[in-house]
């Protein structure tokens, strides 16, 4: 059965580009979101998030009549669920958004529908989602009871696009297809082939769930290695950036870069899903999370030491010292502040420091509420002209473009090795 109508549930960083990609191939796409501001914005042909090349694709899709957004679920041939899966409490996966999304589409499901879970999820989540749908629709059969002959097909197909390059990677990346049966996998592959240039690699739903968690845990562990090296090098008086450059000249060594910590919606979150389900086995994965989560505290201590040096050398009072934090986003050249170590560090500095805290973040127009009363948003030029202590937290292109002649300060904490 082919796909004429497609519904994407959750129109955020993943759902909106996915909906726009299907619509750009002239499928009839209805995006569903509980956020009416997002829905209204999309229906005007505009976007509520920052992602290169997304806005023109959404505008063309909406203007062409292929994409519309709504707060009310509608019947479709295929449903893709891309709602948040954060953690709650002691790093337990919070599946309440997936549960709500599944329950919201259950009433409009029809025989022959395909439901795909794209949200990053713990192992077993797709089977759980199938149970929620089956409980809500006893008149339809699902793969658990009916196998290949089920009325509704279900698959887990994780998303692995890199924020900042979503519109390219969405099309080009290979995609893992974890159908609950082989029919589910075949149908899910056919759906993605509407826009996919990469390959569809078929497995079962549990392996596909674990594959997504594995990819991000692999990266987290490797970044933790780099962050641990940065602590060791500071102790030993060695430049960690030079050290890594040299070690990476070995044909089989490829160390990642240290930074202020690991942020974002994914790498700082997903490894915990493995730890939560496998507390005895996942020792390295847990330690990597702890190493990366410790890094912002270490940076804060470096900043405090720098301020102490500045106080001694300048004879100023602490309240007269101006600190400038460069960057709030969780990685370079994006506006996403979620789970950002830079935000955490800037927030802690602003709370703790009795003098002025200046913040430079070229990708936002207003400081987030948590910072607004303790810090001011300024330009790079103003921060460089006014501050006594510079704290570089994100390697945005704008900061990389600063000439060494523009930096007159002696007190610099550079977490990304940009102003070495
Ligand atoms: N952002 C990424 O880089 C990325 C990459 C790969 C996988 N993922 C995963 O994809 C999923 C979505 O992430 P995101 O970054 O797009 O999140 P997001 O917060 O940007 O977007 C999620 C959207 O879902 C909406 N929503 C919440 N509950 C809903 C419901 N019941 N019905 C309809 N809409 C609902 C929210 O209003 C929001 O607009 C998560 O599981 C995430 O881990 C994200
Ligand atoms: C396996 C993988 O690649 N997964 C990607 C990842 O996307 P992301 O944008 O979250 O990933 P990163 O760019 O790695 O950034 C994460 C944090 O790590 C910091 N960092 C990075 C490299 C480094 O050498 N040193 C660092 O310190 C960086 O500053 C930032 O805070 O998860 C998405 C959602 O699941 C995936 O879809 C996407 O494929």
From TrEMBL:
NAD(+) binds at residues 13-14, 33, 85, 126, 338. It catalyses: UDP-N-acetyl-alpha-D-mannosamine + 2 NAD(+) + H2O = UDP-N-acetyl-alpha-D-mannosaminouronate + 2 NADH + 3 H(+). Keywords: NAD, Oxidoreductase. One of its GO terms (molecular function) is UDP-N-acetyl-D-mannosamine dehydrogenase activity. It comes from the Bacteria. It holds the Pfam family UDPG_MGDP_dh_C. Pathway: Bacterial outer membrane biogenesis; enterobacterial common antigen biosynthesis. UDP-N-acetyl-alpha-D-mannosaminouronate binds at residues 160-161, 212, 216, 219, 250, 252, 263, 330-331, 416. Gene3D superfamilies: Cytochrome c1, transmembrane anchor, C-terminal, NAD(P)-binding Rossmann-like Domain. The active site is at 212 (proton donor/acceptor), 266 (nucleophile). Its EC number is 1.1.1.336. Residues 324-420 form the UDP-glucose/GDP-mannose dehydrogenase C-terminal domain. NCBIfam families: NDP-sugDHase, PRK11064.1. HAMAP family: WecC_RffD. Catalyzes the four-electron oxidation of UDP-N-acetyl-D-mannosamine (UDP-ManNAc), reducing NAD(+) and releasing UDP-N-acetylmannosaminuronic acid (UDP-ManNAcA). PANTHER family: UDP-N-ACETYL-D-MANNOSAMINE DEHYDROGENASE. Homodimer. Belongs to the UDP-glucose/GDP-mannose dehydrogenase family. WecC subfamily. This is UDP-N-acetyl-D-mannosamine dehydrogenase. The gene is wecC.
